[in-house]
Amino acid sequence: MNARGFARAGLVSGTAMLVGDATCQVIENLENLEAFRFDARRTAAFAGTGLLASGPMVHCLFVGLERVALLQGTGTKAILGKMAVDIATAPVRIGTTFSVNEVLSGRGVDSAVARVKKDVVPTWKVGVMVFPPVTWCLFRYIQPANRVPVQSALGVVWSIYMAWVANGSLVVAGGASAAAGAGKAAGETAVELDGDGGQGGR
To answer: What is the pTM of this model?
Structure first.
């Protein structure tokens, strides 16, 4: 692990998440594009999360996996072992991503805790259904030094989904509502996330 690797991972992940959130905002407002106001603060927070948290975490995971003797190489057993570790540790990465985004968005620690409790498990379940084939190809065919950039490029679609979930409103401790997108104008109606991690009413 080195500073250059961390920086590269953060920049690539941050860029992917910037594109993902910007795209997500457009998709959310397709039915009313004339009144659409781009929330730059929301996108900056999500991109910052990729730069400071998501990218470096994935870099640590990939580098760490290659240092475990039983998981080295591109053989079937090694790849299955890497996939198992990836799936098992994904809730930590998802929870950290949601938490950092809540804090950078200005919604605070209580909102971060509520987001983790509400959305980590449903989001992880979706990831388990989507990512195994991608992870297999990543570990089988992509060199270790290029895995974070390739995963981030392929993960723009996932970033759209993560942005959708991460910026839905939720009820924090004490019954207060943390509105989606801290930069939105006062008076906008909060949109509640439904039970499976999707957003009701959108």
So the answer is: 0.78
